[in-house]
Amino acid sequence: xxxxxxxxxxxxxxxxxxxxxxxxxxxxxxxxxxxxxxxxxxxxxxxxxxxxxxxxxxxxxxxxxxxxxxxxxxxxxxxxxxxxxxxxxxxxxxxxxxxxxxxxxxxxxxxxxxxxxxxxxxxxxxxxxxxxxxxxxxxxxxxxxxxxxxxxxxxxxxxxxxxxxxxxxxxxxxxxxxxxxxxxxxxxxxxxxxxxxx
Length: 198
Fold this sequence. Notes:
The chain is mostly helical. Helices cover 77% and strands 0% of the residues. It has helices spanning 5-20, 27-34, 38-44, 48-74, 78-93, 102-109, 116-138, 144-169, 172-193.
């Protein structure tokens, strides 16, 4: 089934907002790239903010599906899957599409923590944390909530550093250095949390 005009608009908005930012991108820029009229936009969305929320939800779906597929094909061992999350991020950081985390970008552009855009960004971050917790529990790690939280912080921290520093320095090897350092720290956390033999 071909995509609907709404789907085309959301896909285009996702790409344009990720590439060019939210506040700096006018709605006409999205409409031009999508080849969609303003009337069509307002048939589906009441405002630019509603379109941003839809674009974030689509990005969440795309990103998490890609990540889950990558991780689950990497290993059947839940502990190794936790580490594969860092390999997935390295692949993402070194791709041509990388422009930081769209959800961190949204959080930095919209100050009100009660607005729908900030809440949608937080939902994505929370979902990644829940997935890490599920893997920690499946790996039978001691204190899985704490380990999942620490691994999640490592992942989010590498996203911020890769975008804020490594991309600015334009040194591709820094991306790998950043994520591999975080992966090494995660490995130490996992090994320390494995059940002790009786």
